[in-house]
């Protein structure tokens, strides 16, 4: 037995060395001891050359902080060839840094230039570049501090969301990108076709589209797995060019079965509470909101008109919102309309009961009226999709509403939308007929109710919008590595 244990321990140790990768700069800065020899590769973020010594900042993208490298006189000829953007391989010892700004630095013993970078033509200079300029260099813009921080934050946020849903008993589901229809019914789907086109028939035998939402597929899975979610790409052929929209974006979507209760509006309120928990748990409780990458993004905010004091107050309000124990307020759509009318504001889009809330209305409700996130519930049935559950009538209100919500947050507007799903087959058919939908095409959707249907709820959250809210990023084009929007796709 002792012999077996010894062999197993040695095998695991060997496997760790055999399959492991060299430490990243992030790992070097956090774990490497002083006087320990290291070797690392990376890109030079900046280089300052003096007569007998040079100081460079080396980055491999793993950390907001670069590794300061000190090149001594004996490396002079090779150091002369190093410029901003050069990729290099260095060996040396980690030493305690005598200067301010970093605890450790690398005293370089040997350097090898892996890839030269012409300083005259390199598009990413040390100065701050406007987002519009960097969008023309999609393939290089991740070398800037802000885009690199955004990419790292995306990964961190995805991991925290996965962790939260796992704790809540959800199964992650891989839902299809190719689909037969438009889940939202908005007619803004991309239709796909093979190249070259087949002579006489569709590839699948019928029209196929890039998915605009994974909701309907998740609903099917929730009727067997109970609680399911996905974080997957979606596509919408929206021609409008705004700060909040992309043609290709990522959505966090979840569907799950719920206990039947007598008051449907209480079910909607419970759904809002769960969504609040998702945001607070993955952003606030996880510590993401206090992370270094978030610091980088707020330092590089692309809002020229916002003073440092204004930015500080906005970030403090954000931190309070995601860390407070106090529940986020809820109001009905009807109450929201009444508040908007009472405000006496001059709106670009008139405030009328039965019309969708516009971004200007959403921002006023969250920024001015509430001063933080707010759930608006129970919208008119006529402006919402067919699958939302009809609310029972309310005394004093003649118009039909559905059990749904939008989560509105300051400086963005809508972040999340969700609803109770209509589980009553006859009511679902009536809703589809009122919207002139093809019942035969959605026959499978009716089967979910026909064969053991159950009350269920769900929501969708724009991942880029969540990232932008956390990082103070005004435009979702800076919330995804390689953005696509109408008339624009590089790479």
Derived from helix and strand composition plus strand pairing, the structural class reads alpha+beta
Q: Going across the major beta sheet, what is the strand order?
A: 6-10-11-16-15-14-13-12
Number of helices, where a helix is a run of at least 4 consecutive DSSP H or I residues: 14
Mean of residue pLDDT values: 91
CATH level 3 topology of the largest domain: BirA Bifunctional Protein, domain 2
Low-confidence stretches: 1-16
Distance between the termini: 58 Å
Largest sheet composition: 8 strands, mixed
Number of domains: 2
CATH architecture of the largest domain: 2-Layer Sandwich
CATH-defined superfamily of the largest domain: Bira Bifunctional Protein, Domain 2
**What spatial form do the alpha-carbon principal axes imply?**
elongated
- Our Rg estimate from Cα atoms comes to 27 Å
Summarize this, please?
This protein has 491 residues and is α+β, with helices and mostly antiparallel strands. The chain contains 14 helices and 18 strands.
Structural notes for this entry:
- Its EC number is 6.1.1.22.
- Helix 5 crosses helix 8 (292-299) and helix 7 (264-285) packs across helix 9.
- This protein folds into 2 domains: 18-122, OB fold (Dihydrolipoamide Acetyltransferase, E2P) (Beta Barrel); 141-489, Bira Bifunctional Protein, Domain 2 (BirA Bifunctional Protein, domain 2, 2-Layer Sandwich).
- It is built from 14 helices and 18 strands.
- By secondary structure, the protein is α+β, with helices and mostly antiparallel strands.
- It is 33% helix and 22% strand.
- The chain has helices at 2-19, 25-31, 76-79, 131-134, 145-167, 215-225, 264-285, 292-299, 308-323, 333-342, 359-370, 425-434, 443-450, 463-471; strands at residues 37-49, 53-59, 67-72, 87-96, 104-115, 171-172, 178-179, 191-192, 208-210, 227-235, 248-257, 330-332, 374-377, 404-409, 413-421, 456-462, 484-485, 488-489.
